[in-house]
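pasting input
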Amino acid sequence: MKKILILILSFLIAFLSLCGCNGQSEGEVGKLVIKIHQSGTGSGWAERLAAGFMEENEGVTVVIKEESGLTASLNTILQNNVNLADMYFVLESPLHTYAAKGWLEPLDDLFASEVENGITYQEKIDPSYLEYFRSTNASGTHFYGIPHTSGVSGIYYNSVLYEEKAYLGRDTNGKAILPETVDDLFMLCSRVLQDPVNSDLLPNGDFNTANDIKPFVFSTTWLYWDFLIRTWVVQQVGIDAYNNFHKYENAEIFKEDTDVSKAKLKALKVFEDLIIKNPANYIAGSQSKGYIDAQLDFVQGHALMIPCGAWLENEMRSNAPEGFVAKAMPTPYIDGALKDNNGDYIRYNYTSAGAYGIIPKNATNKELAKKFALYVARDASLKEIFKENSIPHSIKIIDKQISGLTPTQASIWEIYNNSQNIFNASENPLYKFNKVKFWAVGVPYGSMITSGKTAEEVIASDYTYAKNQWAVWEYELGL
Amino acid sequence: MENKESKTVVKKKKINITTRIFIICMLALPVLNFLVFWVYTNIDTIFLAFQRFDVFTGKYKSAGLHNFRELFKAFRNIPTRQMTYAVKNSITNMLWNTFVSLPIALVCTYVFFRKIPGYNVFRIIFFLPAIISSVVLTIAYKFSFDTSFGIVNSIIKKVGLGYLLPQEGWFGTPSRAWFMILLYGSWSGVGYNVLLLSGSMSRIPAEVLESARIDGIGMFRELVFIIIPMIFSTITTMLVLFLSNVFSYFLTPMLLTGGNPDYGTYTIAYVITDLVKQDQLNKAAAYGVFFSVIGVPFVLGFKMLLEKLVTSTEY
């Protein structure tokens, strides 16, 4: 009897302990706690803005915490509903699932609020990107995400070396000419290989080119090649066709004879010619490297170019040798790229935007968090963010005048503000809930370089896979 | 006198209540732990395996065997071959541990046990990886083999064998990358294995070994015919651990290669971890249930077989 009593009481204490696991927030009223995923975006921007925000709002305290792995743990944090911060900024992750589970605060009032000069929050977001933050679930259709970083993604190059060598000649101002077309890019690669930089003179008079600079270095973060390939696709079909593809109406959009599939094939062919068939064009073992190793190779001057994003400068600040300058290059135009009425190529920029912020439904200071989001959306704040981390924000800056930029930032600013920016967003739940993607099977570059999968096979397998899985995906989402 | 007795009874009762409260409190924590992390998690996982998440209602709905059908489809998924690699890698890891890592650990332990000259140096070399954080260790290991900065490549080039270096890097093909992961496993795991084995070896009665040495036994025969049979219960435990690793090993490939190249370094547990990361909890649960159903009887059966085959030595 006593044993049974002990057991019952033990269970009772155990269950009572569980009662402590109800929704709790880390924040106190008036103390805004913001957690940021530790990445190239950094948290310096938030620290800066927090200081201004506190000055403007007396009695308010803002606490910024940077955490590694926050994106991966956000699901658990929101599910546990314990020690919630008031705001989280994370990388691309299942925003719409969190919304469907009822963990997020709807932000329609924030989107309708005025930021400054009569312009609302919603008006400051690219219409093609707005859908990224809207979700339909049991509680209706609402905005749930706070726009965060956008970007200039594509080729970054060692500008000091490039200016010194002027591989493709100089313009009338004496500046080294950048490759305008993909053909120019191939020419640039061959000239880099013909013009040794780090070669040692061997005793027999030959040059040992083993340690010489290579045109490219890249990493197993294959997504970085996608920045280039997708831009080449959009250059051929235009941004409307690209956005149309993102409606994901049915599996037939992956069929080999559609315009987008043909454009994909041509872009992949360029990748084959540039990288797979020409191992001399990249540092040996690039397919073994992590992205930090590849970026280190780049800033250490082992390669002229790297496929990367605007976070490069911020991420590599402590590793770059003195005098090293990286710049973003407008993506060279592929054969068949669209031109405007004046016969000039239309310039596109792949933003790689996807990071976002959220306010948990059970956060303590939800209204204060929204107020901070409005503060961040001001032109002056957005400029400060850019100066801090070199990454353009996905909220538009109305007054584009800016000063005091580094050479890297200046190149990013120029491209971002003088291109048609590509955002990935779709109304289709299949896309929002991560069932169907631009590459149905997955980003293909790793398979192409490692297993010898051809461009044609990539396109064909994407179609077959999408056709086989489409009904499954719809069933899984309850469509 | 009577008063004294009644006082003792009261005191006894008081002690009993205090003891009972103490026992209850001490039991509560493990019970709670068991309820939350075992009972609830496993029951929930089984339910999840037969459900799907309806995004419009925000609720889980019955999906029958759908998630299991998707699992079997994944084995036939030609475009990525992720599951094929995962199963193959998980099994080769177990075989590698059994036939390579374990013998290395046995020899090392024996060297320390016999105090062969220089054993202290080896002890530090082998134990060092066991006390360093696995994240730091994997970064250091990967960096050592980097094609541009790696010390291993530099040494190989310096001794004039640069032509032997793989063009695509040490982690550039699925098979080589997996071999590098196995190698890392042996290097980083040897300290832990030695720790387990040396505890067991140190308990062997000195007189048994002394009498064998008086009979003129050599080191090889001492290890194979006396020590190994006497510590076989520990070896059995290790073998069972290696076997259960088939279903739980994922951290090293995740940190070293992230499943690259071309899904070639995935393991069963890593596929499940990845599904959780992609918020495909129902599929992850179905994979977990399926491999548990296969794994549990397999591991238990293997343990029983070993226990039957080898009689444990009492000493």
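fyi The radius of gyration of chain B is 26 Å.
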